[in-house]
Design brief:
The complex is a heterodimer.
Chain A lengths: L1 E5 L8 H11 L3 E4 L15 H8 L7 E7 L5 H14 L4 E6 L4 H5 L9 H19 L7 E4 L4 E3 L9 E2 L4 E2 L14 E4 L15 E4 L4 H7 L5 E7 L6 H14 L4 E5 L6 H16 L11 H4 L10 H9 L1
Parallel strand pairs in A: 1-2, 1-12, 2-3, 3-4, 4-9, 9-10, 10-11, 11-12
Antiparallel strand pairs in A: 5-6, 7-8
Helix pairs in contact in A: 1-8, 2-3, 3-5, 7-8
Chain B lengths: L8 E5 L19 H13 L4 E3 L8 E2 L2 E2 L10 H11 L4 E3 L1 E3 L5 H14 L6 E4 L4 H4 L10 H21 L7 E5 L4 E5 L12 E3 L4 H10 L2 E4 L3 H17 L8 E6 L1 E3 L3 H15 L2 H12 L32 H18 L3 H9 L4 E3 L1 H13 L5 E4 L9 H13 L12 H4 L7
Parallel strand pairs in B: 1-2, 1-15, 2-5, 6-7, 7-10, 10-11, 11-12, 12-15, 13-14
Antiparallel strand pairs in B: 3-4, 8-9
Helix pairs in contact in B: 2-3, 3-5, 5-6, 6-7, 9-11, 12-13
Classes of the chains: A alpha/beta, B alpha/beta.
Chain lengths: 316, 429
Amino acid sequence: MLLGVAVDGVGWRHLRRLAVAAERAGLDFVTLDDSLALTAVPDGQPDAVTALAAVAPATRTIGLVATVTTTYAEPFQVARALATLDHLSHGRAGWRPRVAASPAEAAHFGPEPLPEAGQLLSQAAEFTDVVTALWDSWQDDAVIRDTMSGRFLDRARVRHIDHVGQHFRIRGPAVVPRPPQGHPVLASGPGRHSSSAAACGADLVFTEVHEAQQVRARVGAGVRILGEVEMLCAESAAELAARLDAVYACGAVDGFHVRPAALPGAVERLVHEVVPLLRRRHPARSGTPGGSLRERLGLPARAPSGFPLRKASASR
Amino acid sequence: MSTTGKAMHLAALFPSNQSAGWRDPRSGDHSDFATFTGLARTAERGLFDFFLLADYPRLTEHRGAVSEVGTAGELDQITVLSALSTVTERIGLVPTVNATFNEPFDVARRLASLDHFSNGRSGWNVVTTSNAWTGENFRRGGYLPHADRYQRAAEFVCAARTMWRSRAADGPGLFQHDGPQFRISGHFTVPAGPQGCPPTIQAGDSEQGREFAASHADVVYSRHRGRAGHAFAADIRSRTARQGRGADQVKIMPGVSFALGDTDEEARDNARAAQELAISPQLAICYLERTWGRDLSSHDPDGPLPDTDPERAPDPSEWPGIAAAEARSARAQKWRSYAAQHGLGIRQLVMKLTGGKPFVGTPARVAQQMTDYVRSGGADGFVLVPGYAPGGLDEFVDRVVPELQERGSYRTAYTGETLRDHLGQSTQS
C-alpha cells in the first residue's frame, strides 16, 4: 500500500520535524501544494520546491513531491530547481504541475488577464514537455572529467533542445546534470487545478476513489493510482484505517494520498496513529537509504532518456 | 564602531564554473550536495557573514558548441541554499538572482521562503544579463538595452521590497507596484521572514551599476583591488552619501583568491600550482580564441601568441557575444606586446590575465595584508574565492582566521542571528 500525506499548513517551524516523523512512520512521500494567491493556509504558502529542499537533508528515504504552478514560471528554471531537489535528495524528488486558477494569481505577474482554460492546459502540457527535454539534454554520463584531454564534459553527450512550440521557444541545454531519477516523479490530479494534461505521462495519479477504476482504464500499467482521501475531523484513527483498508481490498487503487483535516495536530495524528495501523498490515515496499522515489513506487529506478530518441528523429 | 579598529567582513563564493580547477584531485562533484555542505560549514566555522552562489543560466559555448574544458553543471541556487539552511546554523545564504529573466513575485516568494527556513539568513545578489544568447533559455527571450536592464533591476528590487513590507508585522499583504517594467498588484502570500527585506548584494561596475549599488545595495561585490580598489571604495561611498544613506550602510567586499604556505616562497609555489590547475592548456587556447574569433587549436599553448590579426567578421552563431573587431584587434595587440616584453607563452599570459591579485604568503602575512587593506579604507571585507570545493577554505579558516582575530580585525564569535546582524546593519522593515 503506497501512502503519501499532504503536509500543507503544518507551519514553517514544524515542516522538517513532521517530515522526519512521516518517514519514520513508513510513509512513502509527502506532498506540498502551491498557489500564487492567498489560500486557507494560515501561515502562508511557501514555495514548495524551496520548502522541500529544506526537508531533504533532514530525511533519507521519504519522497518529496512539490506542486509547481507552471502558468507564469520559466520551464528552464523549474527544470533546474527540480533537478536540484532530485540531486540533493539522492533521487527522492517529484512534482505535480498545476495551472493558475484565479485572476488574483494573474495580477501578481502583470495586467494581462488569466488565459482561458484551454490555453492554460495546453501551455502546461508544453511546459512539462520542455522540462522533460531539458532533463534529457544531458546524458547520464556527460561528465567525464578526463584530465588527460582536459575535458570536463563530453559535448557529444549534451545537446540543445531547440524547442519551438506554441507557447515556448527554448534553446537549452540545461545547466544542471541529468537528475538521478532521470525524470523526477511526475504526479497529477485530482481535479482541475492540477493540469489534467499532465496525466499523459504521469507516474503517479491522485484521484477520487470512486473514479479510480476509470482512471486505471485510461492510463498505462506503469502508473501508480492513489486514492485522494480526506481525513474527517470526527474520524478516529481506527475508523480511518479501516476505511482505507476496505477500499484498498477492492484493488482499484495502489494506495492513498491523505489530506489531514484542517485542524492543528491533524498531521501528527495521521502520522503517529493512522499510519502505524496501516503499516502493520501493509508494510512499506522499501525504506533502503539511497533508494529513489521511483523505486519506492515500484517504477524503474531511472526514467529512460529521450536523448537518443530525439537524436534519431532529428536525423531522419 | 569598535574601538579596536575596523572589523572586517568575510564571505565565501562557491568556486565558479569558468575554470579548469576541476582537474585538482581535491575538487568535488559540483552537483553533489556534500560539496556544498562541506564548504559552507567550513565558512561557518570561520564565522563568515555569508556563502554566495554565482549563476550562469547558460552553459558556456565556444566555436558553436558546448565548451568541454571548464567545470559545468550548476544546481539551482535558492534550492541548494534552502537545503543548506538545514545543515548550517548561522552563516548567511546568498543566491544570485537574475533580474532580467525572472518575475519579482516568484523571486520574492522564494526568498521569503528561504528567509523563513534559515531563520533570517537569506540575502540576494541581484544581477542583470546583457546577452540575447542567455535569453534563448527564457520566455521573454532577447535581452534589454543596458539602461533598461538597470531600470528593470531597480524596479525588481523595489517591487520585491514592497511585497515583503506588505506582510511585515502581520500586515494584510496588499501590495501594488506600477512602473514601466512591472505593473503588478495583489496580496503577497508569504509572511515576511525574520529579516523583513533580505540584504541585497550587487556586483555591477558600470555607471548605472554603481548608482544602483549606492541606492539599493547592502553589499557591493567588487572586482577592484590595490589602488583601484581604494578609488572604487571612495566612489561608492560618495555616491551612497549623495543618496542620503550612511557610508556604513553599504559594505564593499572585493572578491579575492588566496594562496598560503609555511613560507612566502612555498605560498608563491602554491599560487602558481593553483593557477596552472585553473588554466589548462586547452582552456588557455579557448581563452585566446574568444578574442581571435577563430580556431587556434594548432597553436602550442606554451608557444608564442598568434602573429595573425583576429578574424574581422566571425560567424555570430558560432561566437555569440563576441566583441567588436576593433576592440579585439586592440586587445590582441596589447597582449602580444605584453607577452613579448615579459617573454610569456599563451598559457602563461592567460594565467597573468585571469589571476587577479590574490593574497599570497604565510598566514600571518596574508592576515596582515588583509587587515591593512581594510584599515586603510580600501574595503570593508572580502569575498573569498577558493580554488576548489569542498576543502578549499580549510587552510584559510584554520590558519588565517586566528591570525586575523589576534590582530583584532575579525570577530571571535557570531554576535547575531541573521545575515543583517552579521553585516552590522539594523533590520529593515
